[in-house]
Amino acid sequence: MVLLFPFRQHGFQSDRKELPYLYTEDVTKFYSTLTRGLDNLEKAVSSDGFSFTFLGLAIDLLRSTHSGVLLVTEKLRLPSCCKGEEWLNEYMDETVKLLDVCNVVKAGISGMEHYQVLVDVAVRALETLTNVRHQGQRALHALLTCKQEMSRIENEHKVLMEHKIEAEGKLAVNSLCDKHVENKFVKWNGFWGVLFAMKITSSYICRLLLSTVVYAGPSLSVSFETVAVRVPWTNSLVRLQQCVNDEITKTRNVRKCTFMLLNEVEVLESALGELRAQLNNGVRGHGTSQEDAEKIRQRALSLKQFVQKFQTGVETFDWHVNDLFDEIVEGRNKLLNIVNSSTR
């Protein structure tokens, strides 16, 4: 079972003061960009749910957060010797988690690509139907193959999440409820706060990505903890989680795909399930007319157009994940080169 990250709005105290603005312009700009990205993601969940549009915005947010961190490191002239290297170690630790998540998401994408190919085969079998009773068995077999593939993906993705993410605690975060955390925000000329924001938001967004395209588990409940730091980006993060919770609650009892949140997969699973039931009746002799076959062909044509959009969505998302992976690798190398050259 995978639980999305815990935050609770009533953890804020009404008499609590905002954190002091002791940051450089670049650090302030980083926080503003992060806040806007979280707000945009909340709007995407509200309007489209967990769709390919949401996935694109989530990846964009991870990319902009990472690039923003790199920009801040260049502007702040961080120490590169003695204890000052601690900031580099923390950056490296967080980015290696992002790389690991990218690899798991890529595995999820691979599963969706194979599923899409099988759905395409089933749709082509449906397009050629002229008599449901005599030709429906082949199409029904193709549809059942899609169902079996989805079961295989569920088992594979569950094991992948348990071994690669959950067992190693890669996305565990508990420091947001630490009441002493705000005192550290100005450490390293404010860079500690930037790294903290990257850690918290990236971990939560990665959790959403994994739950959308890899595995969210049959139980989609969310546990809550207290937020001790009141700043705009944490406010936005709390609102995003509440929106996510509402979306999950709204769809929990009606979803055909119980382990993956992606809307487009849910649409495919629902359509294929209805076609399986219709074809099964036809093969048994309960619907043999040409009219029945024509209805199925029309549904297959509509489904074919959706499958093409699904394929485009998967390919585009795959490109975005590859770009994120490459940018993280380049950023790590860039910082290592800067530190190494400054210590010579």
Automatic annotation (TrEMBL):
InterPro entries: ROH1-like. This is Uncharacterized protein. It comes from Riccia fluitans. Keywords: Membrane, Transmembrane, Transmembrane helix. One of its GO terms (cellular component) is membrane. It is found in: Membrane. Belongs to the ROH1 family. It is a single-pass membrane protein. It holds the Pfam family ROH1-like.
